[in-house]
Amino acid sequence: MTDHVNYVGRVDHPILMDESDQTVMIKGFTGRLAGDVMLFNSFGRHYLDYGITDGSLLLCANGIEPHDGDLVIKMNQGKPAVYIFRLGSTETAEGSMRVLGNADEADYMIVSAFNFYH
Question: For residues 42-73, b (16+ Cβ closer than 10 Å) or e, as one string?
Fold first, then answer.
């Protein structure tokens, strides 16, 4: 493993990366994820009930089929947007949260959210 990844100017971040095989390790998280894995920064406070707030780091994978109530990412004009997945729903919103009813429209599923405090 290499030294800590300098993410958003912080050198004490608990994310480790082995550049030789593109492995990312997060202290306290174990397991392999199917498909491509991405990290996104979240913006806004619409998903506070899920522990996601402005600046949360979202661990996402595109090889996982979402279930009703899962949070997913849909790319809108090249930018990630968070949605709550509601199988077959034709609604576009649930309170302040965006709703996605078709799993084929989800680009990634949110596996975990990380919040780092100073």
Answer: beeebbeebebeeebbbbbbbebebeeebbbb
Distance CA(110)–CA(23), nearest Å, equals: 19
Tens digit of pLDDT for each residue in 47-106? Answer: 988 889 888 989 898 988 999 999 999 999 999 999 999 999 999 999 999 999 999 999
User: pTM for the whole thing?
Assistant: 0.73
Phi and psi at 57, nearest 5°, equal: -95, 120
Question: Residue 84, class by beta-carbon neighbours within 10 Å (0-12 exposed, 13-18 middle, 19+ buried)?
Answer: buried
Residue 73: both structure tokens together = 């990412």
Token pair recorded at residue 72: 């997913």
